[in-house]
Specification:
Elements lengths: L1 H6 L2 H15 L4 H14 L1 H33 L1
C-alpha cells in the first residue's frame, strides 16, 4: 500500500485544484467558445440555422402575400 500511495500522491491534489478550474469558467469567454465548438461539431448549430432560415422564409412569404393583396386591392379600385 505504501508503494501505491507514493506513486499516486498527486491525485487528490489534482482533483482539488482541477475542480475549481472547470467550475470557474462558467459564463466566461473560453466556456462560450467551448460551447460553440461543441454545438458546431454535434450539428446543433446547423439545425438552429435551418430553423432560422425556415422562419425567415415564412416571414418573407407572408410579407409577399400581403404585398400581393395590396396590389390586387389597388388594381380593383
Amino acid at each position: 500500500m505504501s508503494r501505491v500511495m507514493k506513486t499516486f500522491w498527486f491525485l487528490p491534489l489534482l482533483i482539488l485544484f482541477a475542480t475549481p478550474v472547470f467550475y470557474g469558467c462558467e459564463g466566461s469567454k473560453p466556456r462560450e467558445h467551448i460551447d460553440d465548438t461543441v454545438k458546431e461539431l454535434s450539428g446543433q448549430k446547423n439545425v438552429e440555422r435551418m430553423q432560422q432560415m425556415k422562419k425567415d422564409i415564412g416571414d418573407i412569404q407572408n410579407r409577399q402575400e400581403d404585398r400581393l393583396k395590396q396590389l390586387d386591392e389597388s388594381a380593383d379600385k
